[in-house]
Amino acid sequence: MKRYKTLEEAQIELIELLEEKGEFRGTLDELAEVLSVRPENVRPLLQLLKSSGDIIYEEVDDELIVRPAMMIPALPPLLTPSQQKEVEEKLKEGYKVVACSTMGGVQSRELRSMLGKRIIVYFRNGSKVEAKLKGFDRFCLKLKNYMGNILAYKHAISTIVYKP
Questions:
Q1: Whole-prediction pTM
Q2: What is the Cα–Cα distance from 15 to 148, expressed in whole angstroms?
Q3: CATH number of the structural domain spanning residue 45
Q4: Can you tell me whether residue 164 is helix, strand or coil?
Q5: Which is the most buried residue in 20, 64, 116, 163, by most CB within 10 A?
């Protein structure tokens, strides 16, 4: 009996496939075979990744074309000198960079793994917030700290770090 992957495993595999090959062209059944998922689960998987901003896809007749979504930052990915020094210190303490403006399509996968964990968000204007990551979508992060809930727009963020 064939073992099918979970939706989360298939998401990660599809993102890695697109990072490696650039795009997928074929039928829904072929994509299901490549990802080892049931054919009826392919469309919901594609919709989920499309809504999170990870991919774009189109169906032309029987052919499916799946590509990674390209995010072009409106502002250069710069940290202020004091933020750069603080990030370097955090990395020496064992923290890990979760996402920054230069990471592109891998940020959703990294952010998914950080849900519910404490992160430090550095903004382009020089400020920072330490909070738990409660959720995210294509355009913003939902954070919670002692001040309450915070909605941070991704275009204003320079770098995100956390301690694993």
A1: 0.47
A2: 33
A3: 1.10.10.10
A4: coil
A5: 64
